[in-house]
Amino acid sequence: MTTRAARPATSDETWSKAELADVRERLGRETEELVADISRAEEQLASGDVSEGAGDDPADAGAKTYEREREIALTLNARDLLAQNERAIARIAAGTYGVCESCHKPIGKERLQAFPRATLCVACKQREERR
C-alpha cells in the first residue's frame, strides 16, 4: 500500500483561508483572461475581421462563415466559463465553496483543485450526466 492510500480522504478536509485565497486568486486570473478573450472576440466579430484575407469565391465565403461561427461558439463558451468563475468566487465569499449544491456534502479538495468551478460532488455529477 502506498503512503497516498494511507492518507485520510481529502473530501472531508476543510479549506484553510490561505487555500481559499489561492483559489480566489486563480479564479480571478482566469476571469481577467476570459474578459480579455471575450473583448477581443467581440471586437473581431463586430469588425467582421474573423477570417482575414478571405476572397469572394464560394469556398472562401464558406471558410469565413465557418470561422465566424467558430468564434461565436468560443465566445459563448468563454462567457459560460466567466459566469462559472464568478459564481465560484461568490461561493467563496458566501462560505459555501466546496459544498455540493445537490446533496450538501463536501465536494472534495482534489476535484476542486482540478476543476475549481465545480458545484457538484462526483456522485451527484455522475447522476446528473446519466439523465
Overview of the molecule:
It is a single chain. With 131 residues, the protein is an all-alpha fold. It folds into two domains: 82 residues, no CATH class; 34 residues, no CATH class. Helices cover 66% and strands 0% of the residues. It contains five helices and no strands. Helix 2 runs antiparallel to helix 3. The longest helix has 37 residues.
Largest sheet: none
Query: How many helices does DSSP assign?
Result: 5
Shape: elongated
Q: Average pLDDT, to the nearest integer?
A: 84
The stretches of 5 or more residues where confidence is low (pLDDT under 50) are 1-12
Strand percentage: under 5%
Spell out the helices and strands N to C: HHHHH
DSSP strand tally: 0
Distance between the termini: 37 Å
Q: How helical, in percent, are the residues?
A: 55-70%
Cα Rg: 20 Å
Our count of domains comes out at 2
- Strand-pairing-aware structural class: mainly alpha
SSE topology:
Blueprint: H1 3-6, H2 17-47, H3 58-94, H4 109-114, H5 122-130
Question: What's a concise summary of this model?
Answer:
This protein is mainly α and 131 residues long. The protein has helices at residues 3-6, 17-47, 58-94, 109-114, 122-130.
